[in-house]
Amino acid sequence: MKTKSLFTLLFIFAIITSSFADTPTPTPTPIKISQMPSATSLGDTDVFPIVQSGTNKKVAWSVIFDSLISNAAFSSGWSGSTDVSPTQGAVYDAIHAFNTSDDGSIISASTGFRINGAAASGKILRGDGTNLVLSTPTYPNTATSAAVLIGDGTNIVLSTPTWPTVAGTAGYKVRSDGTNFASYPTGVISSSTSDNTGFASDTYIAGSAVTVAAGDFKAGGQYRCVFDMVKTGAGTAAATIDVRIGTAGTTSDSSRITFTFGAGTANADSGTFEVIVTFRTVGSGTSAVVSGICRAQHNLATTGLFNNAAAWTIIGTTSSGFASNTATKIGLSFNGGTSFAGTNQVVQAVLNQ
Predict the structure, then answer these.
(1) Are residue 53 and residue 151 in the same domain, yes or no?
(2) What angle do CA 243, 248, 254 make, to 5 degrees?
(3) Which of 4, 99, 245, 272 is deepest in the core (most CB within 10 A)?
Protein backbone atom coordinates (compact mmCIF):
# COMPACT_ATOMS: atom_id res chain seq x y z
CA MET A 1 0.00 0.00 0.00
CA LYS A 2 2.83 2.40 0.85
CA THR A 3 4.56 1.52 -2.39
CA LYS A 4 1.45 2.28 -4.42
CA SER A 5 0.95 5.62 -2.65
CA LEU A 6 4.58 6.61 -3.32
CA PHE A 7 4.22 5.74 -7.00
CA THR A 8 1.06 7.82 -7.24
CA LEU A 9 2.82 10.86 -5.66
CA LEU A 10 5.78 10.59 -8.06
CA PHE A 11 3.44 10.37 -11.05
CA ILE A 12 1.52 13.50 -9.97
CA PHE A 13 4.83 15.39 -9.41
CA ALA A 14 6.08 14.43 -12.90
CA ILE A 15 2.86 15.73 -14.48
CA ILE A 16 3.14 19.03 -12.60
CA THR A 17 6.82 19.63 -13.51
CA SER A 18 6.18 18.68 -17.14
CA SER A 19 3.42 21.27 -17.43
CA PHE A 20 5.79 23.98 -16.16
CA ALA A 21 8.56 22.93 -18.56
CA ASP A 22 6.22 23.09 -21.57
CA THR A 23 5.06 26.63 -20.80
CA PRO A 24 6.88 28.99 -23.25
CA THR A 25 8.47 32.19 -21.99
CA PRO A 26 6.24 35.07 -23.14
CA THR A 27 7.84 37.42 -25.71
CA PRO A 28 6.76 41.09 -25.73
CA THR A 29 4.95 41.97 -28.93
CA PRO A 30 5.84 45.37 -30.42
CA ILE A 31 2.84 47.65 -30.71
CA LYS A 32 2.19 50.87 -32.55
CA ILE A 33 1.85 54.15 -30.69
CA SER A 34 -1.83 54.24 -31.49
CA GLN A 35 -2.24 50.76 -29.91
CA MET A 36 -0.64 51.67 -26.56
CA PRO A 37 -2.71 51.26 -23.39
CA SER A 38 -3.77 54.39 -21.57
CA ALA A 39 -1.26 56.07 -19.27
CA THR A 40 -3.16 55.09 -16.16
CA SER A 41 -2.64 51.40 -16.93
CA LEU A 42 1.17 51.64 -17.08
CA GLY A 43 2.90 50.17 -14.10
CA ASP A 44 6.35 50.95 -12.69
CA THR A 45 7.80 47.88 -14.39
CA ASP A 46 5.81 47.87 -17.66
CA VAL A 47 7.88 47.71 -20.86
CA PHE A 48 6.50 48.69 -24.28
CA PRO A 49 8.66 48.74 -27.42
CA ILE A 50 7.25 51.42 -29.73
CA VAL A 51 7.12 50.73 -33.45
CA GLN A 52 6.67 53.43 -36.08
CA SER A 53 3.35 53.41 -37.88
CA GLY A 54 2.46 55.32 -41.03
CA THR A 55 3.30 54.73 -44.66
CA ASN A 56 6.82 53.39 -44.15
CA LYS A 57 5.68 50.39 -42.06
CA LYS A 58 9.24 49.72 -40.87
CA VAL A 59 10.79 49.92 -37.43
CA ALA A 60 12.27 53.42 -37.39
CA TRP A 61 12.94 53.91 -33.64
CA SER A 62 12.07 52.42 -30.29
CA VAL A 63 11.52 53.89 -26.84
CA ILE A 64 11.15 51.90 -23.64
CA PHE A 65 8.75 53.19 -20.98
CA ASP A 66 9.96 51.70 -17.67
CA SER A 67 7.98 54.01 -15.37
CA LEU A 68 4.91 56.18 -15.43
CA ILE A 69 5.26 59.16 -17.77
CA SER A 70 5.04 62.47 -15.94
CA ASN A 71 2.15 64.78 -16.80
CA ALA A 72 4.57 67.65 -17.42
CA ALA A 73 6.28 65.74 -20.21
CA PHE A 74 3.18 65.79 -22.41
CA SER A 75 1.13 68.61 -20.94
CA SER A 76 0.33 69.99 -24.39
CA GLY A 77 -0.95 66.60 -25.59
CA TRP A 78 -2.85 65.77 -22.38
CA SER A 79 -4.23 69.29 -21.82
CA GLY A 80 -3.09 69.13 -18.21
CA SER A 81 -5.30 66.17 -17.35
CA THR A 82 -3.66 63.13 -15.74
CA ASP A 83 -6.63 60.94 -16.60
CA VAL A 84 -6.48 61.40 -20.37
CA SER A 85 -4.58 58.79 -22.34
CA PRO A 86 -1.58 60.11 -24.38
CA THR A 87 -2.57 60.31 -28.01
CA GLN A 88 -0.42 59.03 -30.86
CA GLY A 89 0.40 62.62 -31.88
CA ALA A 90 1.21 63.69 -28.30
CA VAL A 91 3.79 60.94 -27.78
CA TYR A 92 5.34 61.49 -31.19
CA ASP A 93 5.38 65.25 -30.64
CA ALA A 94 7.11 64.94 -27.28
CA ILE A 95 9.86 62.79 -28.75
CA HIS A 96 10.19 64.86 -31.97
CA ALA A 97 9.25 68.33 -30.76
CA PHE A 98 9.04 69.72 -34.29
CA ASN A 99 6.61 67.31 -35.96
CA THR A 100 3.32 65.70 -34.88
CA SER A 101 2.76 63.42 -37.85
CA ASP A 102 3.56 59.77 -37.21
CA ASP A 103 4.79 59.14 -40.73
CA GLY A 104 8.52 58.52 -40.29
CA SER A 105 9.46 61.44 -42.57
CA ILE A 106 11.39 63.56 -40.07
CA ILE A 107 14.55 61.56 -40.64
CA SER A 108 14.23 59.02 -43.40
CA ALA A 109 16.85 57.19 -45.44
CA SER A 110 14.65 57.59 -48.50
CA THR A 111 13.30 61.15 -48.11
CA GLY A 112 15.89 63.03 -46.03
CA PHE A 113 15.47 65.61 -43.24
CA ARG A 114 12.83 68.28 -42.59
CA ILE A 115 12.63 71.42 -40.43
CA ASN A 116 9.24 72.24 -38.86
CA GLY A 117 7.64 69.69 -41.14
CA ALA A 118 8.94 71.34 -44.31
CA ALA A 119 11.99 71.52 -46.57
CA ALA A 120 11.74 74.51 -48.93
CA SER A 121 13.47 73.93 -52.26
CA GLY A 122 16.97 75.38 -52.53
CA LYS A 123 17.29 76.37 -48.84
CA ILE A 124 20.23 75.36 -46.66
CA LEU A 125 20.73 75.09 -42.90
CA ARG A 126 22.32 78.08 -41.15
CA GLY A 127 22.71 79.14 -37.54
CA ASP A 128 20.82 82.28 -36.46
CA GLY A 129 22.66 82.53 -33.14
CA THR A 130 20.12 80.36 -31.35
CA ASN A 131 18.91 77.62 -33.65
CA LEU A 132 19.59 75.97 -36.96
CA VAL A 133 17.09 77.38 -39.42
CA LEU A 134 16.55 77.41 -43.18
CA SER A 135 18.29 80.17 -45.11
CA THR A 136 16.31 83.01 -46.66
CA PRO A 137 18.15 82.94 -50.02
CA THR A 138 18.06 79.79 -52.09
CA TYR A 139 21.12 78.00 -53.46
CA PRO A 140 21.58 76.26 -56.82
CA ASN A 141 21.26 72.50 -57.11
CA THR A 142 23.49 72.29 -60.18
CA ALA A 143 27.25 72.60 -60.63
CA THR A 144 28.22 74.26 -63.90
CA SER A 145 31.90 73.65 -64.52
CA ALA A 146 34.10 76.62 -63.42
CA ALA A 147 31.11 78.79 -62.39
CA VAL A 148 31.19 80.40 -58.93
CA LEU A 149 28.49 81.29 -56.38
CA ILE A 150 27.35 84.93 -56.39
CA GLY A 151 24.46 86.83 -54.86
CA ASP A 152 21.89 88.36 -57.23
CA GLY A 153 20.28 90.51 -54.53
CA THR A 154 17.72 87.85 -53.64
CA ASN A 155 19.29 84.41 -53.91
CA ILE A 156 22.67 82.75 -54.34
CA VAL A 157 23.18 81.70 -57.96
CA LEU A 158 25.89 80.39 -60.27
CA SER A 159 27.78 83.01 -62.24
CA THR A 160 27.31 83.16 -66.01
CA PRO A 161 31.02 83.71 -66.77
CA THR A 162 33.35 80.91 -65.74
CA TRP A 163 36.57 81.27 -63.74
CA PRO A 164 39.96 79.50 -63.87
CA THR A 165 40.09 76.18 -62.03
CA VAL A 166 43.91 75.96 -61.88
CA ALA A 167 46.50 78.47 -60.69
CA GLY A 168 48.16 78.85 -64.08
CA THR A 169 51.60 80.29 -64.74
CA ALA A 170 53.24 82.27 -61.94
CA GLY A 171 52.64 86.02 -62.22
CA TYR A 172 49.54 85.76 -64.44
CA LYS A 173 46.41 87.80 -63.66
CA VAL A 174 42.73 86.87 -63.88
CA ARG A 175 41.24 88.92 -66.73
CA SER A 176 37.97 89.06 -68.64
CA ASP A 177 38.05 87.97 -72.27
CA GLY A 178 34.59 89.40 -72.90
CA THR A 179 32.82 86.14 -72.10
CA ASN A 180 34.64 84.45 -69.23
CA PHE A 181 37.48 85.12 -66.82
CA ALA A 182 40.81 83.48 -67.55
CA SER A 183 44.40 83.40 -66.34
CA TYR A 184 46.24 85.83 -68.61
CA PRO A 185 49.89 86.89 -69.10
CA THR A 186 49.65 90.58 -68.27
CA GLY A 187 51.32 92.69 -65.63
CA VAL A 188 54.06 90.05 -65.35
CA ILE A 189 57.03 91.67 -63.63
CA SER A 190 60.69 90.97 -62.91
CA SER A 191 63.34 92.84 -60.89
CA SER A 192 66.96 92.54 -59.80
CA THR A 193 67.69 91.54 -56.22
CA SER A 194 71.46 92.22 -56.17
CA ASP A 195 74.14 94.15 -58.04
CA ASN A 196 75.27 93.09 -61.50
CA THR A 197 78.90 93.87 -62.35
CA GLY A 198 81.34 93.59 -65.26
CA PHE A 199 79.78 94.06 -68.72
CA ALA A 200 83.10 94.11 -70.62
CA SER A 201 81.42 91.49 -72.83
CA ASP A 202 77.82 90.75 -73.71
CA THR A 203 76.14 90.06 -70.32
CA TYR A 204 72.51 89.15 -69.67
CA ILE A 205 71.04 91.67 -67.23
CA ALA A 206 69.73 89.71 -64.25
CA GLY A 207 66.18 90.78 -63.41
CA SER A 208 65.32 91.83 -66.97
CA ALA A 209 63.76 88.51 -68.05
CA VAL A 210 59.96 88.21 -67.98
CA THR A 211 58.62 84.65 -68.24
CA VAL A 212 55.38 83.40 -69.81
CA ALA A 213 54.09 80.01 -70.94
CA ALA A 214 55.07 78.97 -74.46
CA GLY A 215 52.77 80.61 -77.00
CA ASP A 216 51.60 83.31 -74.57
CA PHE A 217 53.28 86.31 -76.17
CA LYS A 218 50.39 88.31 -77.66
CA ALA A 219 50.20 90.65 -80.63
CA GLY A 220 50.22 94.16 -79.21
CA GLY A 221 52.03 93.03 -76.07
CA GLN A 222 54.36 95.60 -74.49
CA TYR A 223 57.68 94.88 -72.76
CA ARG A 224 59.43 97.62 -70.83
CA CYS A 225 62.70 97.49 -68.88
CA VAL A 226 64.52 100.25 -67.01
CA PHE A 227 68.03 99.83 -65.56
CA ASP A 228 70.95 101.94 -64.37
CA MET A 229 74.66 101.69 -65.20
CA VAL A 230 77.72 103.16 -63.48
CA LYS A 231 81.13 102.95 -65.22
CA THR A 232 84.68 103.64 -64.15
CA GLY A 233 87.18 105.55 -66.28
CA ALA A 234 88.01 102.32 -68.12
CA GLY A 235 86.38 101.38 -71.40
CA THR A 236 85.92 103.45 -74.56
CA ALA A 237 83.92 101.12 -76.85
CA ALA A 238 80.40 101.78 -78.11
CA ALA A 239 77.87 100.15 -75.75
CA THR A 240 75.12 97.91 -77.14
CA ILE A 241 71.83 96.63 -75.72
CA ASP A 242 70.19 93.51 -77.18
CA VAL A 243 66.56 92.44 -76.84
CA ARG A 244 66.67 88.66 -76.49
CA ILE A 245 63.68 86.33 -76.88
CA GLY A 246 63.89 82.57 -76.26
CA THR A 247 63.63 79.98 -73.51
CA ALA A 248 66.91 80.24 -71.57
CA GLY A 249 66.98 83.76 -70.14
CA THR A 250 70.67 84.00 -71.05
CA THR A 251 72.76 85.36 -73.94
CA SER A 252 72.06 82.06 -75.72
CA ASP A 253 68.57 83.41 -76.52
CA SER A 254 68.44 85.00 -79.97
CA SER A 255 68.85 88.77 -80.26
CA ARG A 256 65.86 90.28 -82.06
CA ILE A 257 66.79 93.98 -81.74
CA THR A 258 70.17 95.64 -81.09
CA PHE A 259 70.52 99.24 -79.91
CA THR A 260 73.99 100.75 -80.46
CA PHE A 261 75.20 103.93 -78.78
CA GLY A 262 78.10 106.25 -79.56
CA ALA A 263 81.58 105.40 -78.31
CA GLY A 264 82.32 105.79 -74.64
CA THR A 265 85.22 107.78 -73.23
CA ALA A 266 87.72 107.17 -70.45
CA ASN A 267 85.62 109.01 -67.91
CA ALA A 268 83.61 107.73 -64.93
CA ASP A 269 79.91 108.25 -65.55
CA SER A 270 76.46 107.02 -64.56
CA GLY A 271 73.17 106.91 -66.39
CA THR A 272 69.84 105.13 -66.93
CA PHE A 273 68.49 103.18 -69.89
CA GLU A 274 64.87 102.42 -70.82
CA VAL A 275 63.93 99.83 -73.46
CA ILE A 276 60.37 99.58 -74.82
CA VAL A 277 59.38 96.70 -77.12
CA THR A 278 56.06 95.99 -78.87
CA PHE A 279 55.01 92.62 -80.33
CA ARG A 280 53.60 93.58 -83.73
CA THR A 281 52.73 90.00 -84.61
CA VAL A 282 53.23 86.58 -83.02
CA GLY A 283 53.24 82.99 -84.24
CA SER A 284 55.34 80.17 -85.64
CA GLY A 285 57.95 80.17 -88.41
CA THR A 286 58.75 83.81 -89.21
CA SER A 287 55.37 85.21 -88.22
CA ALA A 288 56.51 87.14 -85.15
CA VAL A 289 57.89 90.67 -85.43
CA VAL A 290 58.88 93.10 -82.65
CA SER A 291 59.77 96.78 -82.79
CA GLY A 292 61.33 98.95 -80.13
CA ILE A 293 62.92 102.15 -78.91
CA CYS A 294 65.66 102.84 -76.37
CA ARG A 295 66.09 105.99 -74.32
CA ALA A 296 69.21 106.82 -72.33
CA GLN A 297 70.51 109.69 -70.27
CA HIS A 298 73.79 110.16 -68.39
CA ASN A 299 75.46 112.73 -66.15
CA LEU A 300 78.21 113.87 -68.53
CA ALA A 301 77.36 115.89 -71.62
CA THR A 302 79.26 114.07 -74.38
CA THR A 303 81.68 111.81 -72.52
CA GLY A 304 81.54 108.81 -70.22
CA LEU A 305 78.98 106.12 -71.06
CA PHE A 306 78.55 107.38 -74.64
CA ASN A 307 79.61 110.45 -76.62
CA ASN A 308 76.10 111.30 -77.73
CA ALA A 309 74.16 114.07 -76.04
CA ALA A 310 73.32 113.81 -72.36
CA ALA A 311 69.88 112.44 -73.32
CA TRP A 312 69.69 110.16 -76.35
CA THR A 313 66.89 108.12 -77.96
CA ILE A 314 67.20 105.37 -80.54
CA ILE A 315 63.92 104.87 -82.37
CA GLY A 316 62.38 102.94 -85.25
CA THR A 317 64.13 99.60 -84.74
CA THR A 318 62.20 96.58 -86.08
CA SER A 319 63.16 92.91 -86.01
CA SER A 320 63.08 90.40 -88.80
CA GLY A 321 60.53 87.58 -88.60
CA PHE A 322 60.96 84.80 -86.04
CA ALA A 323 58.95 82.13 -84.18
CA SER A 324 57.45 83.34 -80.91
CA ASN A 325 55.15 80.38 -80.26
CA THR A 326 57.87 78.36 -78.50
CA ALA A 327 59.52 81.29 -76.68
CA THR A 328 58.95 81.77 -72.96
CA LYS A 329 61.29 84.67 -72.04
CA ILE A 330 62.07 88.20 -73.12
CA GLY A 331 64.98 90.13 -71.59
CA LEU A 332 68.05 92.30 -72.23
CA SER A 333 71.82 91.97 -72.43
CA PHE A 334 74.35 94.83 -72.14
CA ASN A 335 77.83 94.96 -73.68
CA GLY A 336 80.10 97.84 -72.66
CA GLY A 337 83.00 96.58 -74.76
CA THR A 338 86.62 95.83 -73.99
CA SER A 339 87.88 97.01 -70.58
CA PHE A 340 84.45 98.32 -69.59
CA ALA A 341 83.91 98.07 -65.82
CA GLY A 342 80.32 98.71 -64.89
CA THR A 343 77.93 98.17 -62.00
CA ASN A 344 74.17 97.84 -62.32
CA GLN A 345 72.07 98.16 -59.15
CA VAL A 346 68.42 98.52 -60.24
CA VAL A 347 66.48 96.58 -62.88
CA GLN A 348 62.71 96.71 -63.33
CA ALA A 349 60.90 94.91 -66.14
CA VAL A 350 57.21 94.35 -66.95
CA LEU A 351 55.16 92.71 -69.72
CA ASN A 352 51.66 94.03 -70.38
CA GLN A 353 49.35 92.43 -72.94
Answers:
(1) no
(2) 40
(3) 245
